[in-house]
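User: For documentation purposes, I need each entry recorded in a consistent format: the amino acid sequence on its own, followed directly by the corresponding structure tokens. There are two entries in this batch. Please keep commentary to a minimum and don't merge the entries.

Assistant: Recorded as requested. Entry 1:
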Amino acid sequence: MAYEIPTPKYLRVLNALRARIEDGTYAPGAGLPSESQLCTEFDVSRPTVLRALGILKQDGWIESQQGKGSFVRGRPPSGGAAPQYARDAVDLDEGAETEILHVGAVLATPRVAAALDIPEGTPVYERRRRTVSAAGPIDLISTYVPVDIAVGTDISKPDPISGSILDHIASRKRLRADYATERLTARQVDPSEVDALGVPKDEAVLSVVITAYQSTGAPILASLIVMPGSRHEIEDTYPLS
């Protein structure tokens, strides 16, 4: 005779909450029902609910705020570290092997506006820099920050920011970056980039847009990276299981 093994109670709660986060019932930034509400809904004890919430927190689905409850962070990344060029775009120390080319307010281009989810032409602060090696410039990185986030920070100042720009924003504005999206395309170098990169007019470049978000889904900043194809070889290692 075959016996059906019942699903553990904590797993039933865990799977239900995770499914609601995935389908948008509980959106990023939203609060989960209280522990007592979950106990009533699933007809389980508080330790069972706490076990389910603990696993969700450990796996990056939710975060707890003392005295306030549990809040949705969103679907965790699929795994693996960000490539070095992506980390450089948002975490590179501007005082190390970089040249600041421009700092100031600009109007958001269509690409920047789309990345930051703002109307085209909205003022944003730009920090444009390039990284130089013995072979010549290896990238141009333009970071764009909404005005309301930049105000009260050093982002509008011409001096290099020591350490990660995201860490700087977190310390000054209490805005924590939770995840990022990346869009990569290959194209011919733009005439405005030729001199800055020191490449021929027919050079192929990799162009990447990286947007860093809060757990609520609100953008914090967008970085546009341009890398000469002749000076880059991208390699990665990842599991196949």
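Entry 2:
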Amino acid sequence: MIQGKRILLVIAGGIAAYKCLELIRRLRERGARVRCILTRAAHEFVTPLSVSTLSHDRVFSDLFSLTDEHEIGHIRLARDCDLVVVAPATADLITKITLGVADDLASTVLLATDRPILMAPAMNHVMWNAPATQANITTLVARGLALIGPNAGALAEGETGIGRMAEPAEILAAIDARLGGPGPLDGFSALVTSGPTHEPIDPVRYIANRSSGKQGHAIASALAALGARTILVTGPTRLDDPVGIRVVNVETAVEMLAACEAALPVDIAVCAAAVADWRVAAPAHEKLKKAEGVAAPTLTLVPNPDILASLARRLDHRPRLVIGFAAETEKLIDNARAKRLKKGCDWIIANDVSSGTGVFGGDANVVHVIDGDDVESWSKLAKDEVARRLAARIARRLR
């Protein structure tokens, strides 16, 4: 809970800094104590007077202020809080944090703090996708720093892409989750499937698809962040296991179904895995050899088990809420609606995976939540943000 917690808000120099005024107001309404540091560049976007008025506290900016150093000092600023929030976290400040640079008050405090840090990145989409930025983000996450956003959408420069700072309400929810306390899904259990399946042809070759598992893994993390006891059943991916989640690794659709059934009973099932529709009836025990003048082998395929339908149509231990994904390349909404009825699930999340969308393996998604006759369409979002919104929608339904 935020009530009574001490938040140190570091505001860096980006146009999204204006959103911090709303964030400060909301934190104060929730009973938090907010103290703010403004970088020199942040003064170009918000004024110390505005920040001080809303936070009901002094604003700190100068590393070498004799008054500040005498009365509180950068070390006390770094320690006299429960959480440090960096919003907006600009590319420049992210680089300083990664390298341990301490050349102003904000970067010095971030190096000196032993408190958890939550960053809300905001920058141009090209800067966000730059290899240097992504390498810095990977390093900081590995060190335990938490991220909220960035979101996809219109940017200040008139361009569109991933780089918008998360909205104040989203940052507030992330602060709530980071500081602990009961989440909206406390007491609920969740099962999430993710990634592709690999169906063997022989000991070397297999049938698979282009799924990266990014969306499924993000959903598992988002549900766990809201308090759900979460099990992730995943096919082969290159992703790290989410922290604090029980992960079951499988290869084939048959193994995935068995792992899902072993996880029951659960309250929530989200089938985000891209399960192969068919498998080879009799995989070869030895590597199939190519020989001169010999025709290519004929593969006899049989249908794989339908994991989504198996969970949705169970007579015993059916999850209270069963959600599937419909990866389509044409007639997106019509095909997804038909799939929901055929499978018997409660919701279908439809997304377009046709060539050029970049959904498979990419970091963003455009989804349509189909719930009965209702269709709720979301604009292009980072997959982490899709996961957070879906988890929040699940929590609202179950509560």
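Summary note for entry 2:
Residues 383-398 form the longest helix (16 residues).
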